Amino acid sequence: MKILFLHSLAEPELGGGAEQTLWTMMRGLRDAGHECVLLATSYTAGLSRTEQEGITIWKAGIRNVYWPFHKKRPAAPWRLLWHALDSYNPWMQGYLREVVGRERPDVASVHNLPGWSAASWKTLAELGVPTVQVLHDYYPVCIKTSMYKKGRNCAGQCAGCHVFRLPHRALSRRVSSVVGVSRFMLDRHRALGYFEGVPIQRVIHNARDANELGSGRASVIVPHEGLRLGFIGRLDPAKGIEPLIDAFLAAGLPNAELWIAGSGRQHDEERLHSKTTDPRIRFLGRVAPRDFYPQVDAVVVPSLWNDNLPGVVFEALAFGKPVIGSRRGGIPEMIRHEENGLLFEPDIPGELQAALEAMADDALRAQLTVQAKPSSAPFVDIRGWVAQYEALYREVSNAVPTSSLQVGA
Hints:
By secondary structure, this protein is α/β, with parallel strands linked by helices. The chain folds into 2 domains: about 1-205 and about 380-405, Rossmann fold, CATH 3.40.50.2000; about 210-380, Rossmann fold, CATH 3.40.50. About 35% of the residues lie in helices and about 20% in strands. Strand 7 (about 150) and strand 8 form a beta hairpin. The chain starts with a strand and ends in a 10-residue tail after the last helix. The relative contact order is 0.12.
C-alpha cells in the first residue's frame, strides 16, 4: 500500500510530539512493507523531492505571507493575515494535486494542516483519494490549535476562531475517516459539529518506540537521597509550570527537589526563574528524555489546557515513573488514579499540593511505581499501534475504488 502523509513540517527536530509521532508511524509502516510519501510545507519556493530513511519527502514552498516555523514571531498584523489566508488556502492545492498525480497513493493520512488549510480535505475528495484525518490538536476549530485563551479553556469557539474556521465544519465531512489521538480530542470536535457523517471514527492513542526512547532496560533508576519530582516539556503558561512551582513551595516537603527540564520563550523562562531562589528547584534547560527520567522518582504533568495526549505521561510510565497529572484533555486516559499515578483538578485549590505531598509517602510511591511500567505497554507497542493504522488504511482504501482517482481534476 502507498500512503501519502500530509503534514505541516517535514523536520521532526523543528517540531514536537506530532512530528515525533508521525515519523514513528512512517518508520513502522515502512518496516511493515508499505511505501510512505510525506508532503510538507517549506520556506523554500517551489516543489522539491528527496528521500530520507527510505521515505519519499516532498517539500512545498509556503504560499502565504510567511513560513510558520521560523523562530522569530511575526508582528500581530502579519499573523492575522496569515490566519485569514490559512482559513482556506487554494494556492497550496496545486502542490497537492501534482504530488497525488505523480505518486498515485492508495490513501492519504492527513495530520497537522497549518499551511495547507482545510482546502486539502476538499482537494483530496475531488481527486478520489480516501482520506484519514488524524487529530493531534484543535486546528480545525481553533487558530491557536489549543482552545486555550487568557488562562482559560474555551467552552466553544470564540468570535475570531468562528470567522477563521467558517469553511472547516462543512469541509470536515469530506474525509473518509477521522482519528482522535485521545477520546477527548475526538469527542471535542464532534461536540462542536465537526466530522458529522464521517463513516469511520476511531480513537488510536499515540505510541513511542521503547528502544528509541531508551526505556527498554529492565529498570531505570539513578540513586539519590530524598524525593525528586520532575517536569519535562515546553515552559509555557498553559503547561501549568507556575502553579506547580507554587504548589511545591507550599508543600511540606523539606527533603524534596523539583527538577524542571525544557525551554520556552525568553520572557516565560525569565518569569519562572524570578519566582523563586529556592535551591530545591533546579532549571535544567533542554534535556533528552533518556537522560531525564532515570534521575527523578515521579513526574508531574500539571497542564492547565486540555492537552491532547501528552507523550510525557506514557514516556514517564515507560521508564517506570508514576505520574501526577491534571484532569485535562487526554491525560486521564493514561493515568489510573492511585494505580500508576495521581490525578488532580487544577481548578480546586490545594489539590496539586496534596498530590505532591501524597507522592512523598514511600509506601504509596512504591505501589504506584510497580504499576507504572506495565501500564505503559500499549503506548510502546509499535507493532500493535502500526497494525491499527494498517487496518484502518485498508478499510478506507477498500471503501473507495482506486479507479475513482481523478488525477488532474
